[in-house]
Amino acid sequence: VPFVPISGWHGDNMLKPSTKMPWFKGWLVERKEGKAEGKCLIEALDAILPPARPTDKALGLPLQDVYKIGGIGTVPVGRVETGILKPGTIVVFAPANITTEVKSVEMHHEALQEAVPGDNVGFNVKNVSVKELRRGYVAGDSKNNPPKGAADFTAQVIVLNHPGQISNGYTPVLDCHTAHIACKFAEIKEKVDRRTGKSTEDNPKSIKSGDAAIVNLVPSKPLCVESFQE
């Protein structure tokens, strides 16, 4: 990571090397992709390597909104998280299990031949009404590991700040990707050390602020979640 001394107020070392820092000889980073060096901040930003996009994984696109556009029809909108979305793809919307074909994909009012992870897109779908889709659904490829709703799931929960104790039956609202759904603490399985993840107590009666625990959660409505390994 390059360390670059700058003054944003005076504009020193931001876009061109400053004359007020004769002691600073420039920055240098060495990595397996090759060396990068420079004097000012813009060069350090330009030298950052973009991360590899997970295009090889199955399609996953959580819906942020759904619009009805005159002359076009139903247009769900969201950011591609994994995989590639193309016109002609047969998508399934989980957890409602609605399958349809993508007619077109657009980003910033321009038609795309394919959308990759990181792209915020709108896509037009056939024969699905706006009322059938909602924020929090996840679009996936019906032929390649499609997303599914989870009846329950096990999560590591860290209680940062909570008045009083939390015990089985507590039902907070979870924000998972774009979904916003109440989930019940069905069973607090074990308390764990926040740093190491090692179990410190099995089946605790309750947990409080500062504790970390492994908890079995049951969503009140179908919810798409993905395992941490994926």
From TrEMBL:
<keyword id="KW-0597">Phosphoprotein</keyword>
<keyword id="KW-0251">Elongation factor</keyword>
<dbReference type="Pfam" id="PF22594">
    <property type="entry name" value="GTP-eEF1A_C"/>
</dbReference>
<dbReference type="GO" id="GO:0005737">
    <property type="term" value="C:cytoplasm"/>
</dbReference>
<keyword id="KW-0963">Cytoplasm</keyword>
<dbReference type="InterPro" id="IPR027417">
    <property type="entry name" value="P-loop_NTPase"/>
</dbReference>
<keyword id="KW-0648">Protein biosynthesis</keyword>
<dbReference type="GO" id="GO:0005525">
    <property type="term" value="F:GTP binding"/>
</dbReference>
<dbReference type="GO" id="GO:0003746">
    <property type="term" value="F:translation elongation factor activity"/>
</dbReference>
<feature type="domain" description="Translation elongation factor EFTu-like">
    <location>
        <begin position="73"/>
        <end position="138"/>
    </location>
</feature>
<comment type="function">
    <text>This protein promotes the GTP-dependent binding of aminoacyl-tRNA to the A-site of ribosomes during protein biosynthesis.</text>
</comment>
<protein>
    <recommendedName>
        <fullName>Elongation factor 1-alpha</fullName>
    </recommendedName>
</protein>
<dbReference type="InterPro" id="IPR009000">
    <property type="entry name" value="Transl_B-barrel_sf"/>
</dbReference>
<comment type="similarity">
    <text>Belongs to the TRAFAC class translation factor GTPase superfamily. Classic translation factor GTPase family. EF-Tu/EF-1A subfamily.</text>
</comment>
<dbReference type="InterPro" id="IPR004161">
    <property type="entry name" value="EFTu-like_2"/>
</dbReference>
<keyword id="KW-0342">GTP-binding</keyword>
<dbReference type="Pfam" id="PF03144">
    <property type="entry name" value="GTP_EFTU_D2"/>
</dbReference>
<dbReference type="InterPro" id="IPR054696">
    <property type="entry name" value="GTP-eEF1A_C"/>
</dbReference>
<keyword id="KW-0547">Nucleotide-binding</keyword>
<feature type="domain" description="GTP-eEF1A C-terminal">
    <location>
        <begin position="153"/>
        <end position="230"/>
    </location>
</feature>
